[in-house]
Every structure is written in C-alpha cells, then in structure tokens.
UniProtKB/TrEMBL annotation:
Organism annotation: Bifidobacterium reuteri
Name by which UniProt lists this protein: VWA domain-containing protein
Domain VWFA: 98-176
Pfam families membership: VWA_2
Record keywords: Membrane, Transmembrane, Transmembrane helix
Positions of transmembrane segments: 6-29, 60-81, 330-350
Length: 352
C-alpha cells in the first residue's frame, strides 16, 4: 500500500488559511499591545522557590500547548487533503453472454435435464455473466432472455428441471400423471409449430444467436460483429434432423462466426450413436468454426462435459490489474484526537 492524497489542493488551501489566521491574530495582538497600560513588577514575588517552580511549570505547559496546537492544525490540514492508500489488485468481472441452446426433440430430452441441472449449479458462482435459455424442435422458443438476474435464472432452470424429470426414461413417461404431462407440454409449447419436421438444428442455432446483441437474421456485417462482451452458445443436440430447415448447421455456424459468436457442441444422445455419421458431421462443423465439441466417451457424464466447456470459455477476459484508492484517515484521526486532548488538558492546567 502506498500513501497518497486525494485532495492535495485542499491541503495547500488549508495552509494558506492557517497562515492568514495566525497573521491576523499576531497583527491584532500587536495593535492591542500599543495601548498604554499599567505595568506591575512581579520580580520580588517570583524570587521564592515555590513561585519559581510554578512559573517554570507554567512555561512548560504553555509550550506543550502551543506545540500540540500546531500539530493538531497540521493534522487537520492533512485530513482535509484526504489521506488515502493506493493498492493494486485484480478486479475481476466476467463479461460473457451465454445462451443455452437445447434441442427438445424426444431423443434429447433426457440429456437436456442434465445440462440444465449442471448450469443450475454453475450459476451460483456467476459474477457478471449473462445467461439465456432457448429450446427448439421444429421451431424455437425463448424460455428466458439474456439476464444477470440469477434469482430469475435459478427459478426458470429449476422449473425446467422439474418438468423434464418425468421424461428421462420410457418408464418415467408411462408413469406420468395428467398434471405432469400438462406441465411438460406447457414447457415445450411453441417448439413444434411445423408439421412433418423435428430437430431443425440450424434454425435453432440461428434463433439462439438472435438472442445475442449484434446478430441479425440473414446478415453478418462487421458492424454487427463489434461487441464488448464475449458471446457463446452451448448447443446440446444429437444432430438428427427430420425435415427441411431454413438454415443448415454449417450455414448457421457461418453466420455466428462472422459475428464473433462461439458455438460449442455437446452431444446429447446415446453413447452407442457417437460414431454415427451425423455425430461426426456435427463434430466437424463445430470444430471447423472454432468451437469445442464434446461427447460422453470415456465414461464422462453430461455434467462433466458442460463443466469442461464452461472452464474453457471462462477466461475472465475483463480481468485487469487496477489501482484502487481508498480513504485511510485512521491513524491521522487518532493523532488529531490525541493532540486535541493534550491541548485541552494544558488549557485546563493553565487555567488553574
């Protein structure tokens, strides 16, 4: 820590005021001394040992009082200048925008819940990140837009996890009550508005990208690409398309790359399908556009994959060493109090 003065000009002003006040006191004191007054000699009275000792004490106390007053005045001037401490430290604030882009076709729903549950834990440690959730099948629905209101995010993710709890296995689906079925139907509402089409992944990615600032449908200019916050999409799908999409996955990734949006792929499907051509095509498309593609190979769970993606992207791009200045009047105030107490004590002693 280094000592600095927040208002150094105030100290100079205080010194000038103090000098002016002292000068005025001296001038008026001299004018008053010019008046003729009766003079009495105390030499004979002070010749005694007791009187001499008292006079010596008076002079010592008087000098201590003057010195203490001078010190108190100097400290007061210093406090006016606001003594501060300057320290350097890491000021960290994440500036990431994250969109969870979940395929909610029947084959991926069990894996979507694992992704949601993992982010439900991760969001507890977010500091400045904005997160949004979009789900898609043949059409897309925004569950909640980009926000750093983590209470809202937690409520929405919890509701989604609860709704998806009953569709993890076929047995779960068979045991669903009418109320549970209605709950999942309400959550999925708006994602199946096109007939004879499911899991239109490219369209889903474009809809997710549209939630991020600077992205416009069908265009990707340099003006749109300029952004102040890092943007990423976590795409969870098995890449099994049924129907004719407006955008293919490659076309959607071309648009996101041109607007500096990173798309990371998370394979949400059975391990037995990881070697299929659709999965390999997704891996190639994601990685060729600068994203990370992960599967559940080698026994890794969906939770581990999500945390892997999060750790790779969580680079704290806004982490900078910044100097901070904080007021530090502590010892100065204590010294001023001590000096004032000494002055008052001396004044009381002199009055006696």
């Amino acid at each position: 820590m280094m000592l600095a003065w927040h208002w150094p000009w105030a100290a100079l002003a205080g010194i000038l005021v103090a000098v002016a006040v002292v000068t005025l006191i001296v001038v008026f004191a001299r004018r008053r001394d010019t008046n003729d007054e009766a003079v009495f000699s105390l030499d004979e009275d002070l010749n005694t040992e007791h009187a001499s000792r008292l006079f010596h004490q008076w002079r010592v106390v008087n000098r201590v009082a003057v010195v203490s007053m001078a010190i108190a005045l100097a400290i007061a001037v210093a406090l006016v200048a606001r003594p501060s401490q300057v320290g350097a430290g890491d000021e960290r604030a994440s500036s990431r925008d994250i969109v969870l882009c979940l395929d909610v076709s029947g084959s991926t729903l069990p894996y979507d819940r694992e992704v949601i549950d993992t982010y439900l834990e991760l969001v507890k440690h977010f500091e400045g990140e904005r997160i949004g959730l979009s789900i898609f099948n043949s059409t897309s629905r925004t569950v909640f837009p980009l926000t750093d209101d983590y209470d809202l995010v937690t409520r929405q993710l919890t509701a989604a996890s609860t709704a998806l709890k009953g569709v993890e296995t076929q047995d779960d689906i068979d045991k669903m009550s009418d109320a549970d079925y209605q709950k999942i139907a309400d959550w999925l509402e708006g994602t199946q508005n096109r007939k004879d089409a499911t899991s239109l992944i490219g369209d889903g990615v474009v809809s997710c990208a549209a939630m991020l600032p600077g992205f416009a449908y069908g265009s990707a200019s340099e003006a749109n690409a300029s952004r102040q916050r890092a943007a990423s999409i976590v795409l969870a799908t098995d890449n099994v398309v049924s129907g004719k999409p407006t955008y293919s996955l490659d076309e959607a990734l071309d648009l996101t790359r041109q607007t500096n949006i990173t798309v990371d792929g998370l394979y949400s499907g059975p391990k037995s399908s990881e070697g299929e051509q659709t999965t390999l095509d997704m891996k190639t498309a994601i990685e060729s556009h600068g994203g990370v593609f992960l599967t559940q190979s080698n026994g890794r769970s969906v939770e581990e994959l999500v945390r892997d993606i999060q750790s790779r992207r969580d680079t704290e791009s806004n982490s900078k060493a910044k100097a901070s200045m904080t007021d530090a009047p502590g010892w100065w105030t204590l010294a001023l109090v001590v000096a004032v107490v000494i002055v008052l004590t001396c004044a009381w002693r002199l009055k006696r």
